[in-house]
Amino acid sequence: MSTMTATPFTEPEERVALREAVARLAGKYGHEYIARQAASGGKTTDLWMEMGRNGFLGVNIAEEYGGGGGGMADLAAVLEEAAAQGAPLLMMVVSPAICGSIISRCGTDEQKHRWLPSIADGSLLMAFGITEADAGSNSHQISTTATRDGDEWVLNGQKTFISGVDEAKAVLIVSRTEDARTGKLKPALFVVPTDATGFTRQVIPMAWQAPEKQFTLFLDDVRVPADALVGDPDSADGGLWQLFAGLNPERIMGGALTCGMARYALGRAVDYAKTRTVWKEPIGTHQAIAHPLAKVKIELEQARLLWQKAAALYDAGDDFAAGEYANMAKYAGGEVACNATDAAVQTHGGNGLTVEYGLANQLVAARLGRIAPVSREMILNFVAMHSLGLPKSY
Ligand SMILES: Cc1cc2nc3c(=O)[nH]c(=O)nc-3n(C[C@H](O)[C@H](O)[C@H](O)COP(=O)(O)OP(=O)(O)OC[C@H]3O[C@@H](n4cnc5c(N)ncnc54)[C@H](O)[C@@H]3O)c2cc1C
């Protein structure tokens, strides 16, 4: 008999307690609150600030900078629980996960003291801008440039689909330095205040009704001080490490967010299937209704294991392996969110498409999980090439 101790497939007690506390808080607000805010053009500020006061938004940030001293697995658990209560806080992916991780890992001590405490308590929201209309999924093609001018940097370019800029005090902008205008991307990351001269935004009307809005950004000779630069674009790896310090958390959080959305949709569908009766028994008696929901439950547990593994690898400092699993987790989460929401709509029949039941808008929200922050096709490209060793296809 083996004497090896098996790793338990359970979470530590503290994280279970964290999940329960988040579920209680987010449950007070729930889907109705989010739907109401979205319909009236409101924001999630009340929920966001209460999450911040309770330490939930900064669980991954070091204690010396006002955080909880936990890891990405804790932050992702927080997001999954909020989303499972019908409150998918999109900006958690961006502010504490992407921006918080990049500044924690690559910022100077001064930058950490300046930004992390307010990111952790939720009083400052930082957006993240990498996507450009002409580059799309091919981030190597981004053309926003930063030019050094004495003690300052001057930024020029455009960004698109940037979430939450109207709520943010600053955007972490991914640019390239003027002398690296062509060739492989050497990212240079700058914290740009949203009230900087030359920084303008334009809202993009989206079909998804949500409190979080997307924006096109215009940077016209935006001047920022030298200490706005986070990390070193001239480092040995061409500055890619500082970008990936944020992209793995982004994908892990994307996986957790979509798992939470799938849990919410599945819960709604199961409740309805147990109570709606049109023949003699509740509709959940019919296998045509029950089996798709059972299938979603299995896909959901697979997807949750993937983001938990990705987060465990990231928190253990294995960035390389974390990258592979974070991509797969993001893919699996996007798929199950779509499948769960589709099954929930079908279970509800006509009610599934009413505004009152709120599930049709969730279909659009879940669809986002297949597109952003990295599309499922680009993940399949990555897995084909890096996990399977197939030739690069693009
Ligand atoms: C609601 C929302 C919020 C967002 N928030 C942010 C944000 O806060 N910050 C930010 O920087 N960005 C954000 N984005 C942008 C998002 O990351 C991009 O939409 C995403 O990376 C895809 O890029 P694209 O839209 O330009 O699609 P494209 O790159 O134009 O791709 C179009 C289609 O072609 C496929 N495709 C492209 N290349 C290949 C290939 N080589 N092989 C196979 N298929 C391929 C894609 O998978 C996709 O299906 C957001 C987007 C949305 C919709």
TrEMBL record:
It holds the Pfam family Acyl-CoA_dh_M. InterPro entries: Acyl-CoA_dehydrogenase, Acyl-CoA_Oxase/DH_mid-dom, Acyl-CoA_Oxase/DH_mid-dom_sf, AcylCo_DH-like_C, AcylCo_DH/oxidase_C, AcylCoA_DH/ox_N, AcylCoA_DH/ox_N_sf, AcylCoA_DH/oxidase_NM_dom_sf. Residues 241-386 form the Acyl-CoA dehydrogenase/oxidase C-terminal domain. Its cofactor is FAD. Keywords: FAD, Flavoprotein, Oxidoreductase. Residues 127-203 form the Acyl-CoA oxidase/dehydrogenase middle domain. Residues 13-122 form the Acyl-CoA dehydrogenase/oxidase N-terminal domain. It comes from the Bacteria. PANTHER family: DEHYDROGENASE, PUTATIVE (AFU_ORTHOLOGUE AFUA_7G06510)-RELATED, MEDIUM-CHAIN SPECIFIC ACYL-COA DEHYDROGENASE, MITOCHONDRIAL-RELATED. Belongs to the acyl-CoA dehydrogenase family. This is Acyl-CoA dehydrogenase. It comes from Nocardioides panacihumi.
